[in-house]
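Quick one, T. Sequence first:
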Amino acid sequence: MSRIYVLHENSTWVEPLREAFGELGLPYAEWHLDQGTLAFDSTPPQGVFYNRMSASAHTRGHRFAPELAHGVLNWLELYDRRVVNSSRALYLEVSKLAQYAALTRAGIRTPRTVAAVGRDNVLAAARDFGPGPYILKPNRGGKGLGVHLAPGVEAVAELLERADAAGEAPIDGIWLIQDYIRPPAPYITRCEFVGGRFLYAVRVDTSDGFELCPADACAIDPDTGEAPKKFTVLRDFAHPVLDLYGAFLKENRIGIAGIELIADETGEVFTYDVNVNTNYNAEAEADAAVPLTGMRAVARFLGEELARSQGLTPAVAAE
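Structure tokens:
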């Protein structure tokens, strides 16, 4: 039976998608790729394959999940299976440097960035970068982990020591030093796309730091057990950069993504992150009374793609 296959390594993040599949009556299966084998000369099943592999897999003990997923995606593409969020998408998911190159090629402005490997080189890069403040972040991160605002070189040195002591150094060894874009208010904007089309934007409060995962499971405060309101859906968001984002996603074979931007005090927009493994905040969606939630939009789109892969007219009703 042809079905939707969800490739991932974090079952918690898939729960809302399971509910949406059930509501729409869509057949699906999950491939949990934290470990496993791949018979490259075997033939994949028929269906639509949705890649939800995360750059932060290593923080859940799944160190090689993205590498295994990349092999699986190449195998699926070899057999011309319909893949939503391709091997190219995963390549961009696990490397900010690759993202910035692709964004720049698409005419999208990114913050000035320097990459360095090795403590001495990171500090030298910070000194050459300018007086600060700047952002120190891992090239391969996820959920905003390891992203810090550093007022100067001394702070960078302290952050590197802290990261080494806590085992939080970048998994690929690459640190990025980046211009700090000072916004007029402490928030960033995340633009959600499903099926290559803009769904809505989310304003994210950054006053408490840069760990910006919108998934409901990420939003729970471990001390209080409550979810502070950090995310606000902007249903009427409009900006010329959205057209550039759409073209960027099409060029890089990305069907579903959240793209994060920040505007400086002059209104100049900088794009600094592409989240191929995007999540949605149910509370923010409910507060905004969105007509179509993120996960239901994803499920509906995948259902349409499944019908097309079978030569059928999509039967999932518009909402």
